[in-house]
């Protein structure tokens, strides 16, 4: 497949690029990095640029994200999604894979109170800038998908990423064993593999043209459910973080 | 009451503001880029509603915000983005300033896709399309809803019929979803004077036409518009703690 990746140079991008090595990929972002292949400089908030780069692709994967700045967050997370979906509509692109944080659906009004949260709940992002701007972007994706019967939208939601040595994103040292992971955690490798599965799935097997998935490992907290990702995508997380959540595992005395 | 009204360049906002001026202090605001368009509108302030402290300052001493949720005559994606950002900035500043009452003006066009024979009320899900104007109204409602969910504030969402009939010869007579400007005035007056505010209350307002598209029973019974069917309320109601609400 010819696949356009928006926001390819975030922390997840290189892992996704590696997982999709057998596809023809166009990697886009604001600045080039050394691992890029077939890089194009694209600002996702620029409608013309996104429309132009999207022509002729089979699928779009949106990994772009901006969390802190009041203006840029909406430019990237909301307007960026509008531009992506306008491109899908204009160029008749069938496969759209969007990504975001789990709290664009399961905000504090869910997470602070409940368990067994799932990706099909009505969104309650709250007023956190990152969560709300992403959630609005997701609503735009949904409305475009509802309108255009050829679009299949899959949204994969994440929260905390670890490498194989339990080093969290943006941290230098491993998390000490037996200190409990966030109840929504996954490794970079497993996360990228979930995106690969979503990209390659037979669209006729999807229950609807708009599906959300929580991409978190098999954790015993029972806070968030990953059943849907496993059942529909056939996703199997390879790391369950037991050394972090089970103190007995680390008791060598 | 000190009332803050957005979109001062807009005909609807101006009519509402000028009507409420009889009993309230009105502060109109408009985007700074439209400054040259105004010379005589009383109480107008120009602001970009950005994320700075200026937005907080312009809301000082305001009791109620009347906000227009939909944008008109702007069709670019950047207009939509700008509107959403201003909405978030305004609400954030209002919360920080201690304002607890809001009226959001939206449109019944958000639910127009249902068949005319359907009994469409406030409990039916919005079905916006992707044009900028309706999407702006829809996303603005979502932002307001999340603020209502998060903070101890009261938001009345008034979805207006379309088009708005400004005078008797208006072409709005041809539509089964129209609303008269006087009905909007009365609804706003009644909402402002309510003692029983919910955190999030939706009202549908259109004229009482024989073939009207939307049911307005709830608005009739609570606000008495367009038909006064109000009855005494015997249920306990939410009463914000002193100091949180100025009502």
The N- and C-terminal alpha carbons of chain B lie at a distance of: 10 Å
Tell how many strands the DSSP assignment of chain B holds. Answer: 9
Which fold name fills CATH's third level, the topology of chain A? Rossmann fold
CATH superfamily of chain B: NAD(P)-binding Rossmann-like Domain
Return the string of H and E elements of chain B. Answer: EHEEHEHEHEEEHEH
Q: Percent range for helical residues of chain A? A: 25-40%
Radius of gyration of chain B: 17 Å
Structural class of chain B: alpha/beta
Q: Which second-level CATH architecture of chain B applies?
A: 3-Layer(aba) Sandwich
How are the strands of the biggest sheet of chain B laid out side by side?
A: 3-2-1-4-5-6-9
Whole-number mean pLDDT of chain A: 96
- Low-pLDDT residue spans of chain A: none
Strand residues, percent of chain A: 15-25%
Q: Please name the fourth-level CATH homologous superfamily of chain A.
A: NAD(P)-binding Rossmann-like Domain
Taken in chain order, the helices and strands of chain A follow as: EHEEHEHEHHEEEHEHH
Largest sheet of chain A: 7 strands, parallel
């Amino acid at each position: 497949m010819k696949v356009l990746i928006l926001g390819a140079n975030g922390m997840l991008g290189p892992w996704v690029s590696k997982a999709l090595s057998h596809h023809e990929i166009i990697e886009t972002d604001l600045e080039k990095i050394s691992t890029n292949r077939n890089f194009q400089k694209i600002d996702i908030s620029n409608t013309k640029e996104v429309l132009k780069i999207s022509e002729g692709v089979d699928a779009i994967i949106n990994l772009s994200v901006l969390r802190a700045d009041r203006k840029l967050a909406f430019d990237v997370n909301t307007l960026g999604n509008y531009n992506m979906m306008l491109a899908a509509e204009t160029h008749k692109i069938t496969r759209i894979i969007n990504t975001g944080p789990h709290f664009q659906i399961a905000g504090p009004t869910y997470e602070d109170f409940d368990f067994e949260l799932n990706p099909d709940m009505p969104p309650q992002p709250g007023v956190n800038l990152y969560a709300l701007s992403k959630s609005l972007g997701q609503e735009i994706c949904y409305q475009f998908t509802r309108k255009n019967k050829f679009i299949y939208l899959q949204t994969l939601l994440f929260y905390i990423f670890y490498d194989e040595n339990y080093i969290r994103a943006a941290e230098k040292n491993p998390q000490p064993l037996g200190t409990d992971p966030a109840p929504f955690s996954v490794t970079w490798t497993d996360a990228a593999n979930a995106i690969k599965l979503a990209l390659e799935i037979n669209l006729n097997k999807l229950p609807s043209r708009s599906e959300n998935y929580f991409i978190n490992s098999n954790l015993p907290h029972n806070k968030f459910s990953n059943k849907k990702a496993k059942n529909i995508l056939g996703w199997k997380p390879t790391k369950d973080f037991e050394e972090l959540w089970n103190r007995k595992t680390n008791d060598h005395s | 009451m000190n009332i803050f009204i957005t979109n001062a360049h807009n005909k609807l906002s101006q009519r509402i503001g000028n009507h409420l001026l009889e009993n309230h202090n009105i502060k109109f605001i408009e985007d700074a880029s439209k400054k040259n368009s105004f010379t005589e509108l009383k109480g107008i302030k120009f602001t970009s509603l950005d994320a700075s402290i200026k937005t907080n300052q312009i809301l000082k001493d305001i009791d109620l915000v009347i906000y227009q949720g939909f944008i008109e005559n702007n069709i670019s994606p950047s207009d939509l983005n700008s509107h959403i950002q201003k909405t978030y900035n305004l609400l954030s500043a209002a919360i920080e300033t201690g304002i607890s009452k809001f009226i959001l003006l939206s449109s019944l066009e958000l639910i127009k896709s249902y068949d005319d024979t359907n009994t469409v009320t406030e409990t039916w899900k919005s079905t916006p399309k992707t044009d900028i104007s309706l999407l702006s109204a829809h996303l603005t409602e979502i932002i307001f809803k999340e603020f209502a969910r998060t903070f101890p504030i009261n938001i009345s969402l008034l979805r207006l019929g379309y088009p708005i009939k400004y005078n008797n010869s208006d072409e709005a007579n041809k539509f089964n979803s129209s609303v008269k400007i006087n009905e909007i005035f009365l609804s706003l007056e009644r909402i402002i004077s309510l003692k029983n505010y919910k955190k999030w209350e939706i009202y549908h307002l259109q004229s009482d036409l024989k073939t009207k598209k939307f049911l307005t029973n709830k608005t009739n019974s609570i606000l008495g518009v367009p038909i006064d069917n109000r009855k005494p309320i015997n249920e306990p109601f939410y009463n914000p703690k002193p100091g949180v609400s100025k009502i």
